[in-house]
Amino acid sequence: AFEQLGAYTYGGVNISGGDEPRAVSVGLVTGDMFQILGVTAAIGRGITPEDAVAGSDRVVVLGDGLWRTNFGADPSVVGKTVLLDKTAHTVIGVMPPEFNFPFGGVRMWQPIVLDPNGQARDSRRLMGVGRLRPGATRAAAQTELATIASRLTAEYPATNEHQGVSVVSLRKGLIFFFDVLRIGLAVLAMAVGLVLLIACINVANLMLARGMSRRREVAVRAAMGAGRMRIVAQLLTENAVLAMLAGALGVGLAVVAVRPLAGAIPEDLWRSGPVAIDAMTLGFALTVSLATTIVIGLVPALRTTDMDLTHALKEGGRTASGSSKSRRLSNALVVGQLAGALVLLTGATLLIKSVRAMQHIETGFVADPVLTSQVLLSRGNYEDAGSLRVFYRDLFQHLGAAPGIVAAAAVYPLPFNFETAGRAFSIPGREISETNRSISASAHWVTPGYFSAMQTIMLSGRDFTQQDDETAPRLVIINATMAQRYWPGEEAVGKTIVLEQEDRPTATVIGVVADMMGGGLYQESSPQIFASMYQEARRGIFLVARADGAPENLVSTLRAEIRGVDPNLPIGSIRTMNEVLNETMGPFWGIASLLLILAAGALVLASSGIYSVISYSVSQRMHEFGVRAALGASRQSVVRLVLRQGAVLAIVGGAIGLGVAFAVSKTASGFLFGIGAFDPVTFVVLPVFLVGVALVATYIPALRATRVDPMQALRYE
After folding, report:
1. CA angle 501, 506, 508 (to 5 degrees)
2. What is the pLDDT of residue 272?
3. 496-499 and 422-426 beta bridge pairing
4. Over the Cα atoms of the chain, what is R_g?
5. DSSP state, 645?
6. Separation between Cα atoms, residue 375 and residue 394, nearest integer Å
7. Is pLDDT above 70 for 437?
8. Distance of alpha carbon 458 from alpha carbon 446, whole angstroms
9. Mean pLDDT score of the chain
10. Least confident window among 325-339, 455-469, 528-542
11. Rounded CA gap, 520 and 368, in Å?
């Protein structure tokens, strides 16, 4: 099924050069990965299969950003040597700026030398990527790889049992929140379409009103021999000129708006390539401008030319009032606008309330005021687990005495940082059902004091200490969900679990903590296992420091204390924990904000639509208002008469929109968080607000109706 198969993973290295050492995320790829992805280097060359052979020279390909910041955008950088974890590597190329793989935070790429004899069968750090053959389907690839996986399970049950394969598109595999974004972008696309429809309705109404006011002109042209289709073509041509000018203006505004929009997309999260207006986008926009002109201008043009010439010419200088059929069509269009605007407003409001509910969910820790920082301990400086433990002790001794720091610890992975790890385990004497043969939990590595720094409640048992090192029995702490799931009604502290594929698999539970969320605010709590870094040392860690005040004030202190332990240690990604949470919420807020902007635009269009219809209606009824005034009608009665017309349209449009909005929200209730499909405040306040806006838009023409001079109206008659 595949033309080529490759694999990748990613990690971190410390790069020397520039003003100070720098921790850099690196993509590790097989030799043919760049060929599979179909990319070439902007300078030099990419990684080839020859680079991934044991004994070959150590090479590296730079990302565009790293090339500019650390190497001054030097075009002759190819062939130069850089130190990565104190090991010399030769630069062989620089990738173009739009290349992001496997995510935007990766700044360089190195080849993976695959050594079957040097890899344990249970090592699963690589992720496979393949290019399908022409005509091959993803289903065929899934079947083929599943067959291979089942054969491997039969041959190597100790390491391959419970393992499988899932074939997904590369886009889905690489983009965080893919399902959320796919749904969100589909919603935005539908919202954009609805706004376009509302705009078209608005323009159609204006064209209809303009056409009715030109009926005598059209009648004169027809009386002088102009055919109906020629007149229709003239009207459509006039509209097309306006539409193309408007389309060009819209494209110009989009060009200006696309820069801040591109900047708002977090590079590490889901940006893939440049965000720009290309020829396809430009052509689509102008084509839609022209096509909508023809579609929405045809009915008003045909309505304008459908007349009794004798009656139209007899109207003389008096403004043509148009037919009742045209007025009904115009009113129906306004009702549709208002209904569409209410649907968008309701959807945007529900989504924003849902996102706000996510922000107030109980995470199991107190994010403010916590400062975080990423630290990578290279093998060149820290060769074994013993040197790592010495670093931990020295660092936290410094941080514990630093002013402004209440508590400090290390953790991996950092909650809500788009990284996860898992651990398979078993419970001695516990039968495992055939339908649930694998027991797993999310894995976390922490240093003593982590739960105190995050203010997570210890429900029972105790925290780790520095004495719980490699000489002590294997110890773990679990969360409340795991304790309740596997030891319901019992005390979990003191229980034993067996960690699969470990040198010292048997571990004792010494504590139970409250559930700590870490993957996504919309995800349910799952079992969690916390291990001590003094027993399982890690090179890549995240520091968390709780401040006695604003966490931003700790930045210089944190840097100074780390430098005091290791002056050559790179310090990267210093953020407050609130900033980390906000990055998690970025896609949700982005979609909700764009939807709200579209809803506001729809409301403006709908308001202008009802204004234009009522304004046109008033202009056609000036004689009537003059007669009413001459017969003694008060200004208030005239205003009420006009407002009643607008209120009826607003109420009918609001009722229809309310019904559609309720049906849509009920269908999408599974995507709402913390609120029901029928939110009373939303479904009561918004229709009232819509009617109020419509009445304000109607009030201006209503005032104009009271200013007509009765004598002038009677004299004209």
Report:
1. 135
2. 52
3. antiparallel
4. 34
5. H
6. 14
7. no
8. 14
9. 84
10. 325-339
11. 18
Q: What's this model's pTM, rounded to 2 decimal places?
A: 0.72
Q: Supply angle C-alpha 578, 581, 587, rounded to 5.
A: 135
pLDDT tier at 312 (50, 70, 90 boundaries)? low
| Intra-chain end-to-end CA distance of the chain, in Å | 84
With a cut of 80, say whether residue 606 has pLDDT above it: yes
> Cα separation of 550 and 371, whole Å?
9
Q: Which amino acid, residue 347?
A: G
Q: Say if CB 15 and CB 22 are below 8 A apart.
A: yes
Of 413, 372, 375, nearest in space to 391 by CA: 375
pLDDT-derived band at 436, boundaries 50, 70, 90: very low
Question: What angle is formed at CA 389 by the lines to CA 385 and CA 392, rounded to 5 degrees?
Answer: 140
Joined together, the tokens standing for residue 707 give 């200013």
Mapping DSSP to helix (H, G, I), strand (E, B) and coil, where does residue 501 land?
coil
Higher pLDDT, 162 or 482: 482
Q: Could you give the residue ranges of the DSSP H alpha helices within 369-456?
A: 385-401, 450-453
Which of 547, 538, 519 has its CA nearest to residue 180? 519
Report residue 401: phi and psi, to 5°.
Answer: -95, -5
Give SS3 for 102.
coil
Is the model's pLDDT at 146 over the cut of 90? yes
How many beta carbons lie within 10 A of that of residue 490, not counting itself?
11
- Pairing state between β 22-29 and 2-15: antiparallel
Element (H, E) at 9: strand 2-15
